[in-house]
């Protein structure tokens, strides 16, 4: 893991944001949290993220819509989606849009860390 890995966590549930933040910071990552896709897009931190962990269902703009918009603007940041409603059709849409992982809530910390390892490895390959 690079010391410069910045992980952006987007979820409208403050408890989920805090739990993921605490987990990732305990593993040495720099973490920025956001309550919405819009808040993330307005942030200067959005361009320097190494990976985005986003809830699928958020008000105004879904996680999948955010991924689609970021890809349209040239971003190659890897995405991990989390959701309380792990519907198969949504999972397929997320993966087709380019997500690395799709996790149903609640998920094991080890599952998230495995996804993050894969996402960061994919991100490093893309940035070469």
CATH second-level architecture: 3-Layer(aba) Sandwich
Provide a count of the helices: 5
What pattern of helices and strands is seen along the backbone? EHEHEHEHEH
For the largest sheet, list the strands in their spatial order: 2-1-3-4-5
- Give the class from helix and strand content and strand pairing: alpha/beta
CATH superfamily: Response regulator
N-to-C terminal Cα separation, in Å?
16 Å
Instruction: Give helix % range.
Output: 40-55%
> What integer value in Å does the Rg equal?
13 Å
Task: Let me know the largest β-sheet.
Answer: 5 strands, parallel
> Mean of the pLDDT scores?
91
Total individual domains: 1
What is the CATH top level name?
Answer: Alpha Beta
CATH topology: Rossmann fold
Task: Give the low-pLDDT segments.
Answer: none
Quaternary class: single chain
Number of strands: 5
Shape: globular
- Report the portion of residues in β strands: 15-25%
Give a short synopsis of this structure.
This protein is α/β, with parallel strands linked by helices. The protein has helices at 14-26, 37-42, 63-72, 88-97, 109-127; strands at 6-10, 30-34, 51-55, 79-83, 101-104. It has a single domain (10-57, 65-127), classed as Rossmann fold (3-Layer(aba) Sandwich), CATH 3.40.50.
